[in-house]
Specification:
It is built from twelve helices and six strands. It is α/β, with parallel strands linked by helices. The protein has a domain at 87-286: 3-Layer(aba) Sandwich (Uracil-DNA Glycosylase, subunit E). β5 (247-249) and β6 (252-257) form a beta hairpin. α3 runs antiparallel to α4 (103-111) and α8 crosses α9. The radius of gyration is 22 Å and the shape is globular. The relative contact order is 0.11. Bound molecules: uracil. Uracil binds next to α7.
Length: 287
């Protein structure tokens, strides 16, 4: 049973607004309707689900002996099943990424990829923003609520800080001049529920797309924002240790930096982030 608020009074209106904001912070992205709906209609509501899960599909009976016509399925452990599933997921991601010859083809290849559970809960695929061919590519973690709603990376509070940080060294995702432009994307294109950190399996299955994305966007320098992008590209975590030192990956110079969301929570770390930005500026000037 839901709590009722009298929104005709200022107190009730503010209480209702606070309750809604609290739910948004918890990660709620949809309200439940008044009328019930049939879960088997999900094929219409979520077309990425395999057709067999749609309405009219045979629902396997619980328990009981298997019918004679059913193929023999060897019993394997949960861990083996998970490993097999993720091998297949990575193999398909590799094949799709390799076949994509343009950024638009890559976006379509990702949109058609069904192994990542996060896709089911997301409103939009958040692919990229800025100018392909920009000298600097920024790789973030995953979309948050605002990015999921808008379909563009880094548009919330962390994104606004990111824009200000790069503007301070003369770079912008809006710049028509490729010399001063930025290209921005994420390791994960779908919002994780409640903004949780993407799992190692999710990072591993999206990694082939990230590699291909960077190759197709053709930057001179990659900036890794936070631990998730360091895991995906360097196979290493520990951003506070990694930040500020140039390393090399995918044939490019790579600079790990603290994520702007971390900087919002820890403003004293902005001093080091400024030093990292000056490193990037110096590298661009020297090339
Ligand atoms: N944080 C990220 O890492 N990426 C976004 O797109 C938004 C917030």
């Amino acid at each position: 049973m839901g709590i009722e608020f009298d929104t005709t009074t200022p107190e009730g209106w503010h209480a209702a607004l606070a309750a809604l904001q609290w739910q948004l912070e918890l990660g709620v992205t949809e309200v439940i309707g008044e009328a019930p709906f049939n879960g088997y209609d999900l094929a219409d509501r979520a077309p990425w689900l395999p057709a067999a899960q749609g309405q009219g599909a045979a629902v396997p009976a619980r328990g009981g002996p298997p019918k004679a016509a059913e193929p023999y399925v060897p019993q394997i452990s949960e861990a083996e099943r998970a490993a097999q599933a993720s091998d297949a997921a990575v193999a398909e991601a590799q094949a799709r990424a390799a076949a994509a010859g343009t950024l638009e083809a890559l976006r379509e290849a990702m949109a058609g990829y069904d192994h990542c559970e996060l896709k089911r809960g997301a409103r939009n695929l958040v692919f990229a923003d800025g100018r392909p061919g920009a000298r600097v590519l920024v790789l973030g973690e995953a979309p948050g609520r605002e990015e999921d709603m808008e379909g563009r990376p880094f548009v919330g509070a962390a994104g606004q800080l990111l824009d200000r940080m790069f503007a301070a060294i003369g770079l912008s995702r809006e710049s028509p001049d490729l010399e001063r432009a930025l290209y921005i994307t994420n390791v994960i294109p779908w919002r994780p529920p409640g903004n949780r950190e993407p799992s190692p399996e999710e990072i591993a299955m999206m990694r082939p797309f990230v590699e291909r994305h960077i190759a197709l966007a053709a930057p001179e320098i990659v900036v890794l924002m936070g631990n998730v992008s360091c895991s995906a590209v360097l196979g290493a975590k520990g951003i506070l240790r990694l930040r500020g030192t140039w390393t090399s990956a995918l044939g490019l110079p790579v600079m790990p930096m603290a994520h702007p969301a971390y900087l919002l929570r820890n403003p004293v770390a902005k001093r080091e982030a400024w030093a990292d930005l000056l490193e990037i500026q110096a590298k661009l000037r020297a090339r």
